[in-house]
């Protein structure tokens, strides 16, 4: 890499960062993609990884492999923690907690959003969100361990609470998770246990609105309601989850009325998102406006006011009419790259225009929704269209082939081939059996 060319630093190799870097692969710039994870993650299929349908390798691709053929693009593993807009540098944390600095001429912030607990951070201890590979593996562990623990318990409230799964949030992620957990219980595990009947597992979905998937046309989301009920998911609308504990949750009706308590040992949180920490720091040092979730206000070309050299794209870009979907991130990445190329050619930048290419949501085997302009598709046709769309956008040819093969195999045998989960090692303090350790006293300090 030469150092005489403009240096473009992209923070985040998600959908926005990936598409921006790809488009710059033949431009006369040196590109650095800095990500706190080593791979690009295909978030729309995280729930299939969490529920044992796909492996982590099938939904993520090493960024290093992705850009291996592009001599002007390098990737660095590190978490951006500090921006110095005067020196035009970003400081990042290595996994061993030492730091390094990367200089830039143009900065593209594409660091995405994280799960928000809406001011109740303490819920995170008992209710993982679903944004990262770690979350997916955590959920997989909790889900399958819950059935295992239930198998060892006598009938009664304790066993019932291990067989009760609560999902907070009726957006696409909550719906996908709830549907998949019922499928795990009624298909994958149905005949594998001797003491419990996995089909008795209760899956409770809580949402503040009056239907799931509110961003879809009402007719489609009502279909989703029906499909979930047919699957056996219990829908609770007009409520907020107001407490999450080790052994249960409290739910409060929005319109008033008494709280309800549910005994459950597995709570999954999909009810909100907020900007990642670094994005809040960026807004602060640049004096940029943000919305309540921390999205950074950007101008027509997706740059921050007063900083034509700093783009904010994808989920973090705060502007009217930009949804938090992969398509907006990809288009934003291409747009930032096009502005950089135009700058190099001495041509004026164009304003960013998001083109809505439609949305799709998976509900269960044979059921998905697809909404493209006036076109509305549900049921089996929606499911096939959903599958084709996701395969088209999955990163890496080998991931596409192996995902299609896994899907075909699981359609034929209703099996899940990636159910393996880890519980840690009982003899290592940093890796204790996470489930039982919740009930164990802290280890005695060394030397006693
Ligand atoms: C479970 C789930 C399901 C979804 N399903 C769909 C769907 O079906 N259709 C759809 O269109 N959209 C879906 N989305 C939304 C879609 O995934 C996002 O809109 C999209 O990923 C946003 O892209 P992005 O580039 O802005 O951020 P991301 O793709 O989130 O990428 C951000 C990247 O930044 C990195 N990063 C974060 N902080 C730092 C830091 N400080 N330093 C360095 N790197 C950092 C992260 O590791 C990550 O790689 C889903 C999202 C989730 C979580």
TrEMBL record:
One of its GO terms (biological process) is aerobic electron transport chain. The keyword Iron does not apply. Gene3D superfamilies: 3.50.50.100. It holds the Pfam family Pyr_redox_2. Its cofactor is FAD. One of its GO terms (molecular function) is NAD(P)H dehydrogenase (quinone) activity. InterPro entries: FAD/NAD-bd_sf, FAD/NAD-binding_dom, NADH-Q_oxidoreductase. Residues 7-333 form the FAD/NAD(P)-binding domain. Keywords: FAD, Flavoprotein, Oxidoreductase. Belongs to the NADH dehydrogenase family. This is NADH dehydrogenase. It comes from Mycolicibacterium monacense (Mycobacterium monacense).
């Amino acid at each position: 890499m030469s150092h005489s060319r403009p240096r473009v630093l992209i923070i985040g190799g998600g959908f926005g960062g990936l598409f921006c870097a790809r488009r710059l692969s033949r431009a006369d710039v040196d590109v650095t993609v800095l990500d706190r994870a080593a791979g690009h993650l295909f978030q729309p299929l995280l729930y299939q990884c969490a529920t044992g349908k796909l492996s982590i390798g099938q939904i993520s691709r090493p960024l290093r492999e992705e850009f291996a053929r592009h001599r002007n693009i390098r990737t660095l593993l590190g978490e951006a923690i500090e921006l110095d807009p005067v020196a035009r540098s970003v400081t990042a944390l290595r996994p061993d907690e030492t730091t390094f600095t990367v200089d830039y001429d143009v900065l593209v912030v594409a660091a995405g959003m994280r799960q928000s607990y809406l001011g109740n951070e303490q819920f995170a201890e008992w209710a993982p969100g679903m944004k990262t590979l770690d979350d997916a593996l955590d959920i997989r562990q909790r889900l399958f361990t819950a059935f295992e623990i239930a198998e060892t318990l006598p009938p009664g409230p304790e066993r019932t609470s291990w067989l009760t799964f609560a999902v907070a949030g009726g957006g696409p992620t909550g719906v996908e998770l709830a549907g998949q957990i019922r499928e795990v219980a009624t298909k994958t595990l149905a005949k594998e246990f001797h003491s419990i009947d996995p089909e008795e597992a209760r899956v409770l979905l809580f949402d503040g609105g009056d239907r799931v998937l509110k961003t879809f046309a009402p007719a489609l989301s009502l279909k989703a309601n029906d499909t979930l009920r047919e699957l056996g998911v219990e829908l609770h609308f007009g409520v907020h989850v107001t407490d999450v504990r080790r052994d249960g949750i409290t739910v409060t009706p929005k319109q008033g009325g008494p709280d309800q308590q549910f005994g459950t040992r597995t709570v999954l949180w999909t009810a909100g998102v907020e900007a990642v920490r670094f994005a809040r720091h960026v807004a602060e040092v640049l004096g940029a406006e943000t919305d309540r979730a921390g999205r950074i206000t950007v101008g027509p070309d997706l740059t921050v006011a007063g900083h034509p050299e700093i783009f904010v794209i994808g989920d973090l870009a705060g502007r009217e009419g930009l949804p938090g979907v992969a398509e907006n991130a990809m288009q934003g990445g291409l747009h930032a790259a096009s502005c950089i190329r135009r700058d190099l050619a001495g041509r004026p930048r164009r304003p960013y225009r998001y083109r809505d290419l439609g949305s799709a949501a998976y509900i269960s085997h044979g059921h998905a929704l697809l909404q493209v302009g006036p076109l509305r598709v549900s049921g089996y046709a929606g499911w096939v269209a959903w599958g084709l769309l996701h395969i088209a956008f999955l990163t890496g040819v080998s991931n596409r082939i192996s995902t299609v093969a896994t899907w075909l195999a699981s359609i034929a045998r209703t099996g899940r081939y990636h159910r393996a989960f880890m519980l840690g090692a009982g003899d290592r303090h940093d890796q204790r059996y996470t489930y039982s350790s919740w009930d164990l006293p802290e280890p005695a300090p060394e030397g006693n």
